[in-house]
Amino acid sequence: xxxxxxxADRIADAIADGRLAPGRRLPPQRAFARRHRIAASTAARVxxxxxxxxxxVGEVGRGTFVRAAAPAPAGRSLAExxxxxxxxxxxxxxxPTAPGQSELLEPALAxxxxxxxxxxxxxPAAATGTRAAREAAAALLATPGWRPxxxxxxxxxxxRQAIAAALxxxxxxxxxxxVEALTYPLVKEIAARLGIVxxxxxxxxxxxxxxxxxxxxxxxxxxxxxxQPTLHNPTSLTTSPARLLGLARAVTELGLPVVEDRIWAFxxxxxxxxxxxxxxxxxxxxxxxxxxxxxxxTAGFLVVPxxxxxxxxxxxxxxxxxAGGFALAAAVRWAGDGTVARLVAAKRAEAARRxxxxxRHLGAFAVRSxxxxxxxxxxxxxxxxADTFTAAAAAHGIAVTPGPAFAVxxxxxPDAVRLGLASAPEPELQRALRTLxxxxxxxxxxxxxxxR
Length: 452
Prior knowledge:
By secondary structure, this protein is an alpha/beta fold. It has three domains: 1-68, Arc Repressor Mutant, subunit A; 83-94 and 338-452, Aspartate Aminotransferase, domain 1; 126-337, Type I PLP-dependent aspartate aminotransferase-like (Major domain) (Aspartate Aminotransferase, domain 2, 3-Layer(aba) Sandwich). It has 15 helices and 18 strands. The strands form five sheets. Strands 5-13-12-11-10-6-7 form a seven-stranded mixed beta sheet, sandwiched between helices. Helix 1 (3-16) packs across helix 3 (40-52), helix 4 crosses helix 12 and helix 13 (339-362) runs parallel beside helix 15 (426-449). The two termini are 40 Å apart. Mean pLDDT is 87; it is low at 68-85 and 444-452.
């Protein structure tokens, strides 16, 4: 069981046996994190889990309180809401698969299971992998205007570990890292574990603001920048070409290293060039196989500046973040025989089908997404809050990710949710979207009737 669920279970027990009485205010999340010696992002997940179970409710500006009853949508009495069951449809998870995926993957795996091949594949893999793996990864990551040099490619166990290794190699404890104001939640956890301070930076319809980046650096020097310029998670935004050039000029003028996360970029049919194409001496590109291929057999890719290869490889080794030899051997075969390309095409088509379902059921709401993304960002109608909508969805057997999970600044949390479209079977996804639309409408109507 995940750590945050174990901690949530303990809090739930304390509520059940009366040690935490109804109306009791829980400590602020950062204080809770310090008390339990956990990352701030883990504390946020504990509180989110308690909200989903209907045990606590958050009040903006006041805090999080133990509930006397199960939660209710905004504008309704708390006592109206039923107890929360485990989700039947999980739209927090986001692991894309393609029709016929297993059949596509099996031939390469069968070849690896031959005695001679298996012996080689089960040997430990260095951070630099093999020549074949570096060349396969360089070809896989190439875009129309950028092709990485194989000797600059490194490997980690997965993309999360690649992010951790890149940041660990660039930033000392206490260092400041600029990030988009809404960012990948596990980056917050990685930063907390490395003792890194995340600095939220403003974005607009074109992407991260170079002016905001420069202003933050002038205020107190940044050690690095982490960003997702292509199919940003959670908003699906892809940075415009002009803005990407502006960011390249900004980081070059500031001499600021960058960690560029491209884990979802493969879905974009235009295959936009990375920031690394414009600032190769500063940008560390992170990507991986989990979304392209399958979550259970992963490898993380790092393309680093030429003078950073040894430093980042050392961080991979010291963090214990190395890739498995079997995963790299499979990746080489899948990339070489066209399997990855076929999976990418199938997943683009599947994502587009699922986005059409979003348009059909949530088109009347303020949703932000890309036609090829596997997630959508839903800015909730008033009077819904992220926590009460998340609890309402959970009461209907649907798990969604509340917007505050992505917010870097705890004082600026959006009343929004992210819907992961990849993991649920399509019929279940369609039913969930229809249900969520009904919940959103009923909550808004209830709020209007109550005069809120």
